[in-house]
Fold:
Amino acid sequence: MPEPSTPKVLVPRDPLHHAPWAACLLWAGGDKEAVARFRAETGCTWTPPKNALDRMIDDATGHSGETARRFIEWFNANVYGIDENGEVIDRDEP
Structure:
C-alpha cells in the first residue's frame, strides 16, 4: 500500500505573512496580466462564473476549488515565493 503524500502548504507558515500574502493573492487573481500568465504557463482555461448557476455548477463539480488550488500553487511559486512547506523563499540570494 503506498504511503500517503504530505499535502502542500498553500499559506505561509509565518503569521506575519498572512495578511500581505492574502492581499497579494487577491491582487493577482484580479490582475489580467497575472491571470493570463497563469493560464499560459499552466494550460488552465477556467474562467470565473458569470452567474449563480455557473457558480453552483463549478462548486458541485469541484472545478472552482481545483482551479483555485492550482492558481495558489502557481502564485506561491511565481509571485509571492512560498515553497511547498509554507516557508517564504528568500529572493535576495545572488
Remarks:
- The mean pLDDT is 84.
- The CA atoms of residues 49 and 55 lie 5 Å apart.
- The chain is about 55% helix and 0% strand.
